[in-house]
Amino acid sequence: MKNNNTIKVNFKGGIIDPGILYNILVVARKAGLLYVRFGLRQQLYFDVDIEEVEMVSAELEALGISYEINEEKYPNIVSSFPAEDIFIINTWISENLYKEILSTFNYAHRLKINISDANQSFTPLLTGNINWVTAPAEENYWHLFIRFPKTNIIYEWKDLIHTNDLSAMSVLLEETILQNTTKYYDNSEANGDELYEEIKSGSFTSKPSPAPLTFPPYKLPYYEGMNRYGSQYWLGIYRRDELFSIEFLKEVCDLLAKTGTTTLCSTPWKTIIIKGIIEKERKDWNSLLDKYQINLRHAANELNFQVDDNSLDALKLKLHLVKYLNDDDTRSFGVCIGIKTKRRSEVFSSILVRRKPLIRLGKLEFFHVYDILCAKDYNPNERTDFVFSSGNPKFVLAEQLRRAILSFYRRSTEGTEEQSDTSKQTEYMLSD
Asked: Is 252's pLDDT higher than 50?
């Protein structure tokens, strides 16, 4: 049996150590693999034959690399570090501060944690269970949003928390939630105020939040290609099939080691970004792209999608929808389109395509149809606002998606909001 065991390695906050990645790639190549891929939470995945699992496990353990096999007990920390300096301006947080904060998260957490700059829309703010978002006007202070596990309930903390206490308070929050699962876990009536009273913030450096955080207008930046910022360049690499050649990535690591000043990041778009490229190094990176025939400058119709991790069905559906949008020459700049094929998964989206079965027998599903759901103000950091259309068979889905995209542009130009169905929807962000 081939490729039935998925190995996951977390790169905290999406910051990749080239030496560690290189060693992982060597192990994966020993297992006979040619490709690896990245996930929505900035982690690394690769699939191995069942006969190779023992060897891979032994090699990773000898290297001191934490990993999971076919499990997601310990989710990766998502951060907006990849966007720093290239998509984010006028902010008080720096790359070094991200690294300092992430270094304090030295425990195996079971809840999802996001650490985000409020002044960006490249990485999701609220797809974690514990979501830290910078307070734009309060240097070194953070807003806290709790999304109770396996619910769609989001609670904004009443206090701002100091940078030095993010890790310690995350530990306390996780312990409290997991020790009181009947109240806070998979409970549609989970009460944020009750959790606040249990924990409060008195033992931490905090101050009352002056007002609820207003999310920034959503605008997805173009995250691919060789681009200038300041006196340097950044390189974004996207792969249509989500697969990155092991040999290519090994040479990326070698070139990073050679230059010594560049930074490698994974993004929630299942891509990589290399920052800090100086002028004299551009030719080396371009030569590497030429050698492996890495195409750049894909259409926004393709780059705007977020799909479930480890879902061939979701990837195939994406390619089907992208082809239709491209054939129709549909503009989709600024829209984040999600595809959700699993019952409990996190998908960051302005417009969501959600698959559902007409018949479900235990874990078996038959005769799928699709709903199209739109976020409030088409901002992926908000809740679902309305159902654009529901129960679509696949042969009409692409046209329905095109119409939903057109409704986004009508709203942005006319200031109006269309709703094809009047029913409300509050479930699509639901995740573990």
From this structure: yes
Longest dimension (CA), the chain: 60
How many Å apart are CA 402 and CA 321, to the nearest integer?
9
Q: Per-domain residue ranges for the chain?
A: 5-69, 88-208, 303-414
For residue 55, the surrounding DSSP H or E stretch is helix 53-62
The DSSP letter of residue 88 is B
pLDDT digits (tens, 9 = 90+) for 54-87: 999 999 999 999 999 999 999 999 999 999 999 9
CB 89 within 8 A of CB 4: no
Q: Does residue 423 contact residue 412 with C-beta atoms inside 8 Å?
A: no
Q: Compute CA distances 347 → 28, 140, 186, whole Å.
A: 28, 29, 18
CATH architecture entry for 303-414: 2-Layer Sandwich (3.30)
Fold of the domain built from segment(s) 5-69: Sulfite Reductase Hemoprotein; domain 2 (3.90.480)
- Among 205-219, 274-288, 358-372, which range has the highest average pLDDT? 274-288
Of 343, 337, 342, 333, the closest CA to residue 321 belongs to 337
Q: What are phi and psi of 9, to 5 degrees?
A: -125, 130
Find out whether 187 and 148 touch, Cβ atoms under 8 Å.
yes
Nearest to 75 by CA among 147, 158, 9: 9
